[in-house]
Amino acid sequence: MNRLVAIDWGTTSLRGALLDADGRVLESQSHARGILSVEPGAFTQVFETLFGDWMLPAGTRCLISGMAGSKQGWVEAPYCACPAGAAEVRRRVLEIEPGRISIVPGLSDMHDGVPDVMRGEEVQIFGAMALTGLRDGLFVLPGTHNKWARVNKGTVTGFRTFMTGEFYALLSQHSLLSRTIDADAPLDEAAFLQGVAQSDNGQGVMHNAFGARTLALFGRMPARELSSYLSGVLIGEELRTQSIHAATDVVLIGSEALTLRYALALHAAGIEARTLGAEATWAGLHALSTPDDETTP
């Protein structure tokens, strides 16, 4: 393989990196050109405007992950059903321009007759495996819709999605709680961990979230700490649904601001986790662009 243009094309943002044959990042760029900002039929134009120069050398290929492969994106790439490893996903990569531009399909899973999906996170998981050497473990990807994925022998056996980030935004900005919470306040670790602990009281998130109102009402917690407390309640509720063995390898993948919160919550439960950022995306796209016979088993 020669150079690879690796792209993570999401709903609201677009990131790209130019990788050499060994997966090293030569250049990178980021734009507020998520799929929602692209008019129907204009994806090719946007791509060529932003990445055309990178694609000029002969033999350069592009691999795209994320929402560009959704129904609202460039071309719909049907999901690859779990259990799935890199080889299964690689075989389902959809060619837009054969030999030049392709899209990663994303993963689907089924729980009690209800489907679950991810687009983009599967690439980060494969990248995390490549970077850490882990073939088994729990991979957690915080975001607007958080993913908890189980991996066994290099295969994603299943995953769960939690709308924690979206619920936090709704409660902190559009509910009664928004009147007392300072949503822009920095993380207060003590208040956050208090919320995590409160989530384990058996009363449920609908009750515990209301505490962000009453703690302010009775002057027990200032507004600058309440957002951290609410975040702790919601993330703690996520953790409460998990069954994590002490020997399980846990990897957090995402922005530093979010992975820090999950690392704190896991640490409070006696679980240590490794943390990765954007490098997991580029490593994953590089791994998926490499033919099966060139990968390390």
What does this structure look like?
The protein has 297 residues and is of the alpha/beta class. Helices cover 34% and strands 25% of the residues. It contains 10 helices and 15 strands. It has helices at residues 43-51, 86-91, 121-132, 164-174, 189-198, 205-208, 211-217, 223-240, 256-268, 279-289, and strands at 4-9, 14-19, 25-31, 61-66, 80-81, 84-85, 94-97, 101-103, 107-111, 114-118, 137-141, 146-152, 155-162, 250-253, 274-276. The strands form 3 sheets. The chain has a 6-stranded mixed beta sheet with strand order 3-2-1-4-8-7, with helices on one face. A hairpin with a 5-residue loop joins strand 2 and strand 3. Helix 5 (189-198) crosses helix 9. The protein is globular, with a radius of gyration of 20 Å.
What tags apply to this protein structure?
25% strand; disordered C terminus; globular; 6-stranded mixed beta sheet; 297 residues; alpha/beta; 10 helices; 15 strands
How are the secondary structure elements laid out?
Elements: E1 4-9, E2 14-19, E3 25-31, H1 43-51, E4 61-66, E5 80-81, E6 84-85, H2 86-91, E7 94-97, E8 101-103, E9 107-111, E10 114-118, H3 121-132, E11 137-141, E12 146-152, E13 155-162, H4 164-174, H5 189-198, H6 205-208, H7 211-217, H8 223-240, E14 250-253, H9 256-268, E15 274-276, H10 279-289
Parallel strand pairs: 1-4, 4-8, 5-9, 11-14, 14-15
Antiparallel strand pairs: 1-2, 2-3, 6-13, 7-8, 9-10, 11-12, 12-13
